[in-house]
Design goal:
By secondary structure, this protein is an alpha/beta fold. It contains 15 helices and 18 strands. The chain is globular and about 65 Å long. The structure holds xanthosine-5'-monophosphate.
C-alpha cells in the first residue's frame, strides 16, 4: 500500500489514480490523521501531495517531522517538496517568478549508476523490484514538466542532492537516496508531464514494489453494475440525463442494472448547443429503449439568470433551477433516488477535500436541498473523463456519444461573460456550431473546441460603416483528463476559415480571437 497525504491538491486523487494504475493499493489521508494511519497501515511508500498553501502560512497543513524518521520512502510533490524542506530546516521562499504550465526540466544527477538504466526500459510488469533505482531512470536528459506553484525550495536540506533544475528554479527535484526521501516541484501525475508515469513507477520501485500496469476491463464494469443493482434493489429511480458523456454513461449503467425502474429526465434549459435535444432523442430512445422524459424549462432558466453576471452566482442559479425542475418531475415518478453523472474533477473542483481550494461550483455536485428527499446515485464519482469513456465503450455506447466533447452542466451560460440573454445565446450558438463543424471537417480530435461570447464590444467596419459589435473567442484544448490542458496549435488556415465564417454568418460579431492559455493557470471554460 501507498499512502497519499492530501495537502489540498487539486490533483491528489489523480496521483492516487496513477498509482492505482500501476497496480498498487492507495489510501488518501488528511495530514491531521496521517501519522496515525501510517503507523496503523504500515505502507511501503508515502506521497505528499501538492496544495495551495505556503509552508510559512499561518494555518498551512503540516505533518509531524517524525514521518521523515519512519524509514518509509517518501515522495513530496510541489507543496510536498516544500514541506519536506521546511521540516528539515531548508529554505523555502516565494519564487521570483510564479510558474504555471509547462517548463523544461533538466536532469542533472541520476542518483544511481547508469547500469541500472540500461538493465530495463519502460515500466516493469513482472519480476522482482530492482535494488538500484533512481527517480529519473528511463527518462530523457531534458523534458517537459507541468508546474503550478508560487513558492520554491531555494536550497535543498542537508544530505539532499539536487536531481533536476529548470531555467527558473534551481531545485526542481531533490533526493536523499540513503533515506529514500525525494521532492519534486513539478506534477508527475498530470498527463502533460512527460515521463510522469515513469517517475512514479521509479518511486514505487524505490519503495520495493513492482509496478504493474492495470486496465479497466469488462469484468470491472460488470462489478459496477452489480453493485448498483444490489444497492438500488426495486427502488424507483430518476436520472438527470444531459446527453453528455458522463450523464449518458451513468444513466446507462443504472439502466443496465435496474431497467424499467429508471426514468431518465432531460431538462431542456435553453442553455444547450445547437441540435442537442434531437441527438439525445435519437440515440437513447431508439438504441437503448430507455424511458426518457424531455422537459422544456427554457423560460425558467432565463428567468433565474436574469441580471446575474457573476460566474459563481450563475452556476448557483442554474444549479438551483435544475434541482427545482427535477424535484417537480421526480414527484411524478415517485422516485427516491437521483442518478447524476458527477465525475471526479467535478468533485475536487467543487472543493472535494479538506485543504483544497474551491475553483468552481460544478452545478451537479452537492446542490440537493436537505428537504428534497432524493438520494444521489453517482456511479462515476471516482472516475476521470477518459475512464468514463472507457466504461462507456465497454458498455457498447457508440463513438458518436463516447467521443463527444465534454459539455459543462451549466451549459452555454458559463461561456457567456456577462448577462445570459436569449440574444447572446443565439449569437453564441451560431458561432459555436461553426467552430465545431470546422474542427470536425478538418478531422482533428480534441478534448474540446468551442466558442465563447466574451461580452467585449469593439469597433469594426462593415460596408464602409462603423459598427460596434461582439467579440467571439475560440477555445480549442488538448487534454486527457480535466485537470490540465494545453491550447491546440490549430493550423492558421483552419482558424482563418472559422473567423471568416463567424463574422460573415453571425453579423452581430465583428471580431474573433483565439484563446492561447493553458490550464493552469486558466481553466478550460471561461467561467
Ligand atoms: P474547467 O473549466 O473547470 O473545466 O477547466 C474542466 C472540464 O469540466 C467541464 N466543466 C463542467 N462539467 N459541470 C460539468 O459536468 C460543470 O459545472 C462544469 N464546469 C466545467 C468543462 O467543460 C471541461 O471539460
Amino acid at each position: 500500500m501507498i499512502i497519499i497525504v492530501d495537502f489540498g491538491s487539486q490533483t491528489a486523487h489523480l496521483i492516487s489514480r496513477r498509482v492505482r494504475e500501476l497496480g498498487q493499493t492507495v489510501m488518501v489521508v488528511e495530514p491531521e490523521d496521517a501519522i496515525a494511519r501510517i503507523k496503523e497501515l504500515n505502507p511501503q511508500g508515502i506521497i505528499f501531495s501538492g496544495g495551495p498553501a505556503s509552508v510559512y502560512g499561518k494555518d498551512s497543513p503540516i505533518i509531524d517531522t517524525q514521518v521523515l524518521e519512519l524509514g518509509i520512502p517518501i515522495l513530496g510533490i510541489c507543496y510536498g517538496q516544500q514541506l519536506i524542506s521546511h521540516l528539515l530546516k531548508a529554505k523555502v521562499k516565494p519564487g521570483d517568478k510564479k510558474e504555471y504550465g509547462p517548463a523544461t526540466l533538466q536532469v542533472i544527477a541520476r542518483p544511481r549508476s547508469g547500469k541500472a538504466i540500461l538493465e530495463r526500459t519502460g515500466i516493469a510488469s513482472e519480476g522482482a523490484p530492482r535494488n538500484d533505482v533512481g527517480l529519473f531512470d528511463n527518462t530523457a536528459e531534458e523534458f517537459t514538466v507541468w508546474m503550478s506553484h508560487g513558492d520554491e525550495v531555494k536550497s535543498p536540506p542537508e544530505k539532499f542532492k539536487i536531481l533536476a533544475t529548470t531555467k527558473t528554479i534551481p531545485v526542481a527535484a531533490m533526493g536523499n537516496e540513503k533515506e529514500k526521501i525525494y521532492g519534486i516541484q513539478f506534477h508527475p501525475e498530470v498527463i502533460h508531464t512527460q515521463f510522469g508515469e515513469q517517475i512514479l513507477s521509479n518511486f514505487l520501485e524505490i519503495c520495493g514494489v513492482v509496478p504493474i500496469k492495470q486496465e479497466l476491463d469488462p469484468v470491472f464494469v460488470e462489478g459496477l453494475i452489480d453493485d448498483i443493482r444490489e444497492s438500488l434493489g426495486q427502488e424507483k429511480v430518476i436520472s438527470a440525463l444531459s446527453g453528455g458523456v458522463d450523464s449518458s454513461v451513468a444513466s446507462l449503467l443504472v439502466h443496465k442494472a435496474i431497467g424499467e425502474n429508471l426514468t431518465s429526465i432531460y431538462i431542456d434549459s435553453g442553455l444547450m448547443r445547437e441540435g442537442e435535444t434531437d441527438i439525445l432523442r435519437d440515440v437513447f430512445k431508439e438504441n437503448y429503449d430507455m424511458k426518457i422524459e424531455v422537459v422544456d424549462a427554457k423560460d425558467e432558466f432565463l428567468k433565474a439568470l436574469d441580471g446575474v453576471t457573476e460566474p459563481e452566482a450563475k452556476r448557483m442559479a442554474i444549479g438551483r433551477t435544475f434541482i427545482e425542475v427535477l424535484e417537480r418531475e421526480s414527484k411524478k415518478y415517485k422516485a427516491n433516488f437521483l442518478v447524476q453523472g458527477t465525475i471526479y474533477p467535478d468533485v475536487i473542483e467543487s472543493k472535494g477535500s479538506k485543504h483544497s481550494e474551491k475553483i468552481k461550483s460544478h452545478h451537479n455536485v452537492g446542490g440537493l436541498p436537505e428537504d428534497m428527499n432524493l438520494t444521489l446515485v453517482e456511479p462515476l464519482r471516482t472516475f476521470y473523463k477518459d475512464e468514463v469513456r472507457k466504461i462507456g465503450s465497454i458498455l457498447g455506447i457508440p463513438d458518436a456519444i463516447i467521443k463527444r466533447q465534454p459539455f459543462p452542466g451549466p451549459g452555454l451560460a458559463v461561456r457567456i461573460v456577462g448577462p445570459v440573454t436569449e440574444e447572446n445565446l443565439k449569437i453564441l450558438r451560431k458561432a459555436d456550431k461553426i467552430v465545431r463543424d470546422e474542427i470536425e471537417n478538418y478531422g482533428i480530435e480534441l478534448w474540446q473546441a468551442f466558442a465563447v461570447f466574451t461580452g467585449i464590444k469593439t469597433t469594426g467596419v462593415r460596408g464602409d460603416q462603423r459598427v460596434y459589435g461582439e467579440t467571439i473567442a475560440i477555445r480549442a484544448i488538448e487534454a486527457t483528463d480535466a485537470m490540465s490542458a494545453d491550447f491546440a496549435k490549430l493550423p492558421w488556415g483552419l482558424l482563418q476559415v472559422m473567423s471568416n465564417r463567424i463574422v460573415t454568418e453571425v453579423p452581430e460579431v465583428n471580431r474573433v480571437v483565439y484563446d492561447i492559455s493553458t490550464k493552469p493557470p486558466a481553466t478550460m471554460e471561461w467561467e
